[in-house]
Amino acid sequence: MGARGPGRATVLSPRALNRAVLARQLLLERANLPVVPTVERVLGLNAQDPNLPYLALWSRLERFSIGDLTTVIQDGALVRSTMMRATQHLMPVPDFRFVRPVLAPLLRRVQRNAFGRRTAGVDLDELVAEARVLLADGQMLTRPELGRLLARRRPGIDPAALGWTVQYLLPLLHPAPSGTWNVRGPTPFASAEWTGVRREATAEDVRELVRRYLAAFGPATVADAWAWSGVSGLPEVFARLRPELRVYTDESGRELFDLPDRPMPAADLPAPVRFLPEFDATLLAHADRTRVMTDQIRRQVCVGAGVAATVLVDGTVAATWTTHRKKDTAVLTVRPLRPLSTTDNERIEVEAVQLLAFTNPDATTMVEWNR
Which keywords annotate this record (predicted)? Predict the structure, then answer.
């Protein structure tokens, strides 16, 4: 795990931190769990594209079918909304209920930075109140539809800016079939009132979010938690929680915090090949991402606002992957980012074939290499 001197915190190596996050994100061994507890355990799944949560769960669960996730989205057990990093995420209702208010200050900052000038002079409280009325009684509208309705009383204001502003300032859901497998197109907005989401977060809500973050991604620094959440005031929150947390350090001397009951897997534990979808939180949940990829590889994976789909080999990013169709054949292309052994190549191909069987069960499949 790491060295420990007299009176000093245990020092965790990058490999120990890697194995910890892989274990907590269910990437060391596929779990035999239902879908909703899995999404709760990993603290939400990125859902910027409807297929991303399905791919994330396929890499984490022993037995998983497309219908397993679609059913709980349709039933409302999981909801899709604007959450961490101001992007679409899928979460169980109880988590959404307390996490969304904690993120509200971040989302207000995003609105101000992105649309503040275009909504100058607009009473934002009044705008949100009107949007609540428009979405009452189960009414659903797309963002453009909502923006146009709100613009009727605000001449000269860009309807798109009004629609986006409401998306950031008002807890909204995007109900099924939006967000289910292969369903794209205009995204419906619906009120989240039925979830019991709170208007304001409590101090305990913020502390609980930190605990849940550590359970899913720890051990981690304060900066790591901020990189994942964007929540302000975290140094004070960690200081308040410090008596109940376990403290480590990394090899650079930075303090790492964790829940006291969380086991640390052995650093030499083997890690299987795993295919991660775009924007997988395993790659984004820390300010220091070297536990899962080198800085050189990160620059090839995280380009602009995009985060590529990746292949983990021995726990760290070794390649990116994409899929496309060639007539009746589903093709998965692997692009290595570092040298790979013959054994690594073989294991990647085995996992790729299984992934294609999941995504394209009726198609002929092929794995290509872009070296």
Answer: DNA-binding
Per-residue confidence (pLDDT) for residue 5, from 0 to 100: 44
Number of independent structural domains in the chain: 2
Peptide bond between residue 171 and the one before it cis (omega within 30 degrees of 0): no
User: Residue 341 corresponds to which tokens in the numbers above?
Assistant: 């052994």
Range of the domain at 316: 293-369
Residue 97, both tokens: 């209920």
3-class DSSP state for residue 341?
Answer: coil
Residues in contact with 33: Cβ distance below 8 Å, sequence separation at least 6, in sequence order: 26, 41, 61
Taking Cα atoms as reference points, which of 70, 32, 34, 35 lies closest to residue 51?
70
Q: Are residues 228 and 314 in the same domain?
A: no
Task: Look at residue 130 and tell me if it is in a domain.
Answer: yes
Domain shared by 220 and 318, yes or no: no
The yes-or-no verdict on residue 314 having pLDDT over 60 is yes
Average pLDDT over residues 20-28: 98
Task: Give domain status of residue 284, yes or no.
Answer: no
**DSSP string over 110-179:** HHHHHHTTTTTT--HHHHHHHHHHHTGGG--EEHHHHHHHHHTTSTTS-HHHHHHHHHHHS-EE--TTTT
State whether 262 and 333 are in the same domain.
no
In this structure, are 246 and 323 located in the same domain?
no
In a domain, 208, yes or no: yes
Neighbours of 184 (CB within 10 A): 10
Instruction: Kindly report, residue by residue over 354-365, the tens digit of the pLDDT.
Output: 999 999 999 999
* Domain contains 52: yes
The domain boundary, picked from 219, 251, 268, lies at: 268
Residue range 38-82, pLDDT digits in tens: 999 999 999 999 999 999 999 999 999 999 999 999 999 999 999
DSSP 10-68: PEEPHHHHHHHHHHHTT-SS-B---HHHHHHHTT-EE-SSTTHHHHHHHTTBSS--HHH
For the whole model, what pTM was predicted? 0.95
Mean pLDDT of the 209-222 span: 98
